[in-house]
Design goal:
globular, mainly beta, 4-stranded antiparallel beta sheet, 21 strands
Length: 290
């Protein structure tokens, strides 16, 4: 279903570099915005070989996220930024899993505009809440937590549009897979990056995509499932069209540990008409759980 295009190890000599949990790639694949879970944003250019493979990333700038009062966010509970989405107008949307909230930044250096916080956010698990964030073509924000609050409890999917939050449907929790990143592809489908922890054997990852409609997430396809230790701790995903089809670009969180590294991993999706079919499974489209 997917073809591996390359893996690039990204290194920058800066104390704030690392811990990447969110990623956006420009429509032409030549620019990026990356989010660190220690409350910093990084942006620049993606340098590519003639065949499209990544040969490097340059840093044009970085900034520490600000609070609504214009104060720099410290690492830790308040600054635990996890999900990233960039709107058509360049607005930067960020979700937090420590102090649960979603904020908009018109620019990387702008004070946060914190969205209303619904009562349901207060019921999400501490330090494991809004991990995945995506924005669709209409500007609707979608988010879901890393943990659901119980092994048999589905993940609530939250939606923000027209100034109001609602939780129209949920996603079943399957085995030990936990959501860590999301994006809406140029095809309008919802792409979900999930992680599974295997102890000393490290992490494995899975990418699934769904049809996104008013009734919920349907027609799930598993595009990719990696082996333990195949990659580092992949947490951010960007989905874009490279002119030949859908490309998945993912980034790993090195947890600021010398044993780990920041990897940028790319795959191209091969559609069923190319002769390769994905696996499909149903999802719960009923009213949500907390």
């Amino acid at each position: 279903m997917v073809e591996h295009l390359g893996t690039h190890v990204w290194q920058v000599d800066h104390p704030d570099f690392g811990g990447f949990s969110g990623l956006d790639i420009g429509p032409d694949g030549a620019s990026y915005t990356a989010l660190s879970d220690r409350a910093t944003l990084w942006w620049g250019s993606v340098l590519r070989e003639p065949d499209g493979r990544i040969r490097g990333l340059t840093v044009a700038g970085s900034a520490r996220l600000q609070s609504s009062k214009g104060e720099p966010l410290p690492p830790g509970l308040i600054g635990d930024a996890e999900g990233l989405a960039v709107g058509k107008d360049g607005s930067i949307w960020i979700s937090f899993e420590g102090s649960t909230r979603v904020a908009r930044h018109p620019t990387p250096d702008s004070p946060a505009e914190v969205l209303p916080i619904p009562a349901g956010f207060k019921e999400l698990p501490r330090n494991a809440s809004l991990e995945a964030l995506a924005i669709d073509a209409d500007g609707t924000i979608w988010t879901l937590p890393e943990r659901s609050g119980g092994r048999s409890r589905p993940f609530p999917v939250w939606r923000y549009r027209d100034g109001v939050w609602d939780q129209p449907f949920s996603l079943p929790r399957l085995d030990d897979w936990l959501p860590v990143g999301a994006d809406i592809g140029p095809d309008g489908r919802f792409y979900l990056l999930e992680r599974r922890f295997h102890g000393i054997r490290g992490f494995s990852n899975r990418v699934r995509r769904f049809d996104l409609g008013e009734g919920g997430l349907t027609g799930a396809e598993t595009l990719l499932e990696t082996r333990p230790l195949q990659y580092d701790n992949l947490e951010g995903i960007a989905v874009w069209d490279d002119g030949q089809g859908i490309r998945l670009t993912m980034i790993s969180d090195d947890n600021f540990l010398f044993l780990q590294r920041t990897e940028v991993v790319e795959y191209r999706v091969r559609e069923p008409e190319d002769g390769i079919a994905g696996t499909r499974a149903g999802v719960d489209s009923g009213a949500g759980a907390s």
